Amino acid sequence: MAAAIIQGNGRIRIEFSPRWYMRLLSLPVLAASLCFLVVTCQILRQDLFGGGHWREDWVGLVMCLVLALIIGLPGLVLATGRYFVDLDRILQQVIVTKKFGPVKFESLRKLAEFKFLSITDHTYTDKDGCPTSTSYSVSLCGGKGVGPIHLSTFGKRQEASGFAHEIGAALKLPAKDYVGTEPDEDA
Questions:
Q1: pTM summary value
Q2: 107 occurs within a structural domain
Q3: N or C end of the chain: which has fewer CB within 10 A?
């Protein structure tokens, strides 16, 4: 996911949007849903203005409407999904927002819970166990019992370090590099 950083009025917003080709994946799903909606409208038109009978067509009408919703909602989520992390230095809050079209889910946490920014790596391997690629994640972390908030993922270690130091300087938090270390078992 691509991340954009916007700063202003004591607030830092990190916005994640799927890349354009990920949004293209939603088009076939939305097209299939639209086909079921068209059939639903044809059944309704035939029953209201034609020679159709409700008692014969209600099962097909309900099935087409349910299939349109079951297929269309994931496509709509994929097409319109966005993810924001707002770091408000004035109110000392972290607001994590997941938005899907007009629907929005927010999670509010205190900035004081978080003590540092961590840079970690994740190595992807093929089925033979040979490494294929490595990604570097930057997360806002606290002490024990505080769940981290993922801020961004990068393909290069220097980009991740630069991003972590930029956000850390703005929030007055240290950036800790855990690349190449094993995760704690008790964390």
A1: 0.68
A2: no
A3: C
